[in-house]
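Entry type: protein chain
Record version: 2
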Amino acid sequence: AKDPRERYPDGDALADDLERFLRGEPPQGIPSPRARFPLSAALVALGVITSLAVGGALLSGAEELPRSPT
């Protein structure tokens, strides 16, 4: 990382994160994408929820259409 604030403070912190990774745990030194980009994460979640709601409304409305007898 170019920004010193985004680097590990020392080798022990890096070693701790490597041990966490090997145990299958999330590393502590890397913030989650939700923490780094909260607005983007919220917009993606809103888009997914809206898509599901619109899709569900369209599907339920399609089942209620009257059918002409043949």
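Comment: The CA atoms of residues 4 and 39 lie 24 Å apart.
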